[in-house]
Amino acid sequence: MELEDRKSKILTAIIRNYLETGEPVGSRTISKFTDLQLSSATIRNEMADLEEMGLIIQPHTSAGRIPTDKGYRFYVDQMMEARKHEFDDEKQLLLQRVDRMEAALKQLAKVLAANTNYATLVSAPTYTQNKLKFIQLSRVDEAKILAVIMTQANIVKSTLVDLNEDISEDDVLKMNVLLNASLNGLSVDEINLNIINSLKTEAKELSRAVEPILTAIAQAVTGDKDEPQIYTSGTTNIFKYPELSQSNSATELIGAFEEKQPLNELVLSSMNKEGIQVYIGEESPFENLKDCSVVTANYDLGDGLHGIVGIVGPKRMDYERVVGTLHGLKNQLDAIYKEMGTKKISDSGIGKDE
Amino acid sequence: MELEDRKSKILTAIIRNYLETGEPVGSRTISKFTDLQLSSATIRNEMADLEEMGLIIQPHTSAGRIPTDKGYRFYVDQMMEARKHEFDDEKQLLLQRVDRMEAALKQLAKVLAANTNYATLVSAPTYTQNKLKFIQLSRVDEAKILAVIMTQANIVKSTLVDLNEDISEDDVLKMNVLLNASLNGLSVDEINLNIINSLKTEAKELSRAVEPILTAIAQAVTGDKDEPQIYTSGTTNIFKYPELSQSNSATELIGAFEEKQPLNELVLSSMNKEGIQVYIGEESPFENLKDCSVVTANYDLGDGLHGIVGIVGPKRMDYERVVGTLHGLKNQLDAIYKEMGTKKISDSGIGKDE
DNA sequence: GTTAGCACTCGAAGAAAATGAGTGCTAATA
DNA sequence: TATTAGCACTCATTTTCTTCGAGTGCTAAC
Predict the structure, then answer these.
(1) pTM of the model
(2) In chain B, whose CA is at the least distance from the CA of A354?
């Protein structure tokens, strides 16, 4: 949408002011606030126009104006366009190196929440496309095997397989060799019926054990689709914004952040999108967030590991700072994990560096 | 504390009524509510006595009475004493069997929250005293080993060990045999300097690899002391009780439930105590809970696995029901895990039954 | 020891009034 | 023609005042 320059300036001024105060903004304020040198009466006329265009609205007669979703959208688009190439990468968050993936993500959410004063969420990376590095079977008792799977990205998963029939130590060893020979370097998706059948053939008398083991491996590596790993922090920040904490959706919001499950919709939706996304009010993919704005950034650690970082706040969120912060974070994450190189990322959380 | 029978009846009536309504209770209400056949004037006299004894209090002149912490304490003690042998074990929660420990505990918290309308927390079992079943070392690359540890309770932990010097496939195998021979059946606490030294001696040229591996194992099995595994649910239930949601500590409360860290104090404190504990207001080991009551039960799954289940609500909580529910749950948990027998409990959460 | 009766207290709820930020419109001005 | 000063009007918010009633403590009678 194109907008007369003066109108644009006034709209921006209104929004900026509202972001700060959270109070409806009157014409007199703008008249003094800007360097436009216009009287409040003139501003009033322009404001009437802006209201007609659906960019601002009066909560009630004789109140100032507040931005509509559409108004915010205009502001954000304009800001994103202007700042495209000059985001503040200097102001990096203090993100100390941590050994463990899980702890790192938790800390990330925490730091981000503390820095922005909004609620944050970080999704653990999904790793479906990750290739198998090796599989280690160990016999636990007569009919049970512990399978440990390590992927190229050094994620370790373990699973106990119940075979329903006895198996000897020797056979476990054979099976181990066989599995590694056949599956090494494959991603879970690539394990198809062909491979399974040839595995069974080669396994000969052990063929009946192949299926449960593969099933267990697949399930272990794929992870729980229903229960997403999401780390949250700063949920209580929403109490800092009366328009959120007093809305009846506050409870739902906190509930969603506690259960995490409901946030998955949001994660999935922005996982596919490149770069930084801004959802304003109704634009949100998730019903409960319709009184909020959400800014998300997706990260990519290579090896098919990717997830998102999200910030949830009131519509009058400091978009500029939030987008800037997330932008910087994205770069920082990239750098850290590029540097980490071969270093481990352990899922069960017990990887150690040195 | 011993109390005149009539006074006790009146106090109980006041508390019962207050638990229901949350409103101060007046003399007339009690006069009709009970079967004591006393006029309101008499009740008033008794109430004046009870107030003098510090069991009830007037929020302001010309208001009814509400129980003090001391009053609640009297009520709870009396109730616990009376019901000691007749808790309602019939009303068992629908706790379907789940494969994975983590999921089971999460679900437990959830079910409990839904059933009681309070906030709940469940601590994952600590397992320091648990004995090692076997250790499996796998060579990941030149200088890195993946150590997988399984304990008697079938908890699986994995950790990546960086040796800082190359090691051959053969040596890993030797080390594997050595470790299992020496450590099998020991608990982590039992691995002392003696054992470590004799291990080093036996390891000969590999002795330098012993220490980092043992350190990693110890750390893996001991788990993070700082970051307790606590599952919570129903935090938003506190919004159902105005006296909590409107108190300024509501934010802190929710924050504590989100961060979990602060709850650890509570967990540790009631971990040592047998049976069911009731903390009323100031009695709570945790500052932020001074406007609440907390009821905890510790569970014991054998093999040194034990943790706690807690319910946090307003002081005017339905103690009778909560204590009953926890009591039943305790029995149920015992039964389930007795039945489970050798079945696995996988920490990385990927144990499967059949 | 119990109870009826009564004056008294004080929070809660409501009504009325005062306040003031902000508007829209009109007529004067550059 | 665009801008502005001026003014009447609106309406949420705040304050003040009033009313209401639940509940008390005390006293005197039973």
Answers:
(1) 0.84
(2) B162
